[in-house]
Amino acid sequence: MSALFSPYQLAGITLENRIVVSPMCQYSALDGSATDWHVMHLGQMALSGAGLLILEASGVEARGRITPACLGLYSDDNERALERVLKAVRPYNRAKLGIQLAHAGRKASTDVPWRGNKPLTSSAAGGWETVAPSALPFADGWTMPKPLDRAEMDKIIAAFVQATERCLRLGLDLIELHGAHGYLISEFLSPLANKRTDEYGGSLENRMRFPLEIARAVRAAWPSERALGVRLNGTDFMPGGIVVEETAMVATALKALGIDYVCVSGGGNSPKQEIPVKAHYQVPFAAEVKRLSGLATMAVGMIAEPKAADGIVTKNEADLVALARGFLDDPRWAWHAAEALGDDLKVVVQYERARPKLWPGAKLVRPELHP
Ligand SMILES: Cc1cc2nc3c(=O)[nH]c(=O)nc-3n(C[C@H](O)[C@H](O)[C@H](O)COP(=O)(O)O)c2cc1C
């Protein structure tokens, strides 16, 4: 059995393999509530063969959504809508199910990507007031955020806890806190967005204080046998931004709070970032965070080739490998990876007749996928 298809234990849950469907916003919710699109999308991802499927960034407050069409988990209606979607998907799903809980901070109140991701700076345009560590907009023309005071920070912690309780009722296996990509938690961690002069800004110890308060509160509300992870930026890809040694220190502090893994991503804190995009470009950050903190890591970013993905696990650079766009393009990526690596992957009975091993010598479709 390849390393990629070996099982993995995270807290009390056993993943069938190391492959993860990375959280992906679908911008298809109504007032934060999941729709039939989510049945379609998650239905496909549930058949993908991945060991873990993490649902998209879900706002713990309405104002913490990136766009008006983002998923939320801040109301009873949101919870009921997600319950309906999960009920439809679960009978056919083999993956463990997780969700990413998020607050978009100063990058909230923007339009959906297919309308240009533009900031919605007025209520007439469908926007709302945003919050952040400091009164500093993401870029020129973006909404000026309101800096959070202590009472508002407490409310946000309470919103994360309430969303966690909803995840528990929904029977989810895993929560990932979104601490990357320049959203609220990442804004506190990054010197680019956090210019506070109180005990929540300045030194790394201060910048990580609020993120750790959130993680501690969520861990207390989420049973220890269910997995809890945090997505962090290994780097902001910007001079003056967070660097990997700091991220490793954050991971070490999270580990002490009982967090089970970190997913190491990057960027999103500055429009001036320069990302050297190439295959596996963020894997070295995951490896470094794993080495320095001893915490389990998930690697993400331009991982597409099965043998190379297996190499990440074999070389102990990360414990888990997440793909986003790869699964949109090829929702059976894990089936094809299993063939490439000589592994046996159980698939839904309805689709078994398309398995190449039943048709030796015949090329059904896309020969490059069936070596
Ligand atoms: C459509 C789409 C939606 C995304 N939404 C999220 C999200 O909700 N949360 C998150 O942390 N990252 C999100 N991302 C980033 C991916 O999870 C992933 O980190 C990134 O795309 C790099 O991986 P890839 O090269 O395999 O696509 C999204 C990416 C895409 C393509």
**Overall number of strands:** 12
* CATH fold-type name: TIM Barrel
SSE string, helices as H and strands as E: EEEHEHEEEHEHHHEHEHEHEHH
Q: Over the alpha carbons, how many angstroms does the gyration radius reach?
A: 20 Å
The first-level CATH class is given as Alpha Beta
Number of helical regions: 11
Largest sheet properties = 8 strands, parallel, barrel
Within CATH, the superfamily carries the name: Aldolase class I
Helix content: 25-40%
Task: Compute the average pLDDT.
Answer: 96
Gap from first CA to last CA: 17 Å
Provide the β-strand percentage band. 15-25%
Bound molecules: flavin mononucleotide
Low-confidence stretches: none
The spatial strand order of the largest sheet comes to 3-4-5-8-9-10-11-12
Work out the count of structural domains. 1
Q: Which structural class matches the secondary elements? A: alpha/beta
Shape: globular
**CATH-derived architecture:** Alpha-Beta Barrel
Would you give an account of this structure?
With 371 residues, the chain is of the alpha/beta class. It has one domain (8-369): TIM Barrel (Alpha-Beta Barrel). The chain has eleven helices and twelve strands. The protein has helices at residues 36-46, 76-89, 150-169, 184-189, 204-207, 209-221, 244-256, 283-293, 306-314, 325-329, 333-341; strands at 8-10, 13-15, 19-21, 52-59, 96-102, 131-132, 146-147, 174-179, 227-235, 261-266, 296-300, 320-323. An eight-stranded parallel β-barrel has the order 3-4-5-8-9-10-11-12, surrounded by six helices. A two-stranded antiparallel ribbon has the order 1-2. A two-stranded parallel sheet has the order 6-7. Helix 9 (306-314) links the parallel strand 11 (296-300) and strand 12 (320-323). Helix 1 (36-46) crosses helix 2, helix 3 (150-169) runs parallel beside helix 6 and helix 7 (244-256) packs across helix 8. The chain is globular. The mean pLDDT is 96. The site of flavin mononucleotide (FMN) has 20 residues, from strand 4 and helix 10. Residues 22-25, 56-57, 100, 178, 180-181, 231, 265, 300-303, 323-326 line the site of flavin mononucleotide.
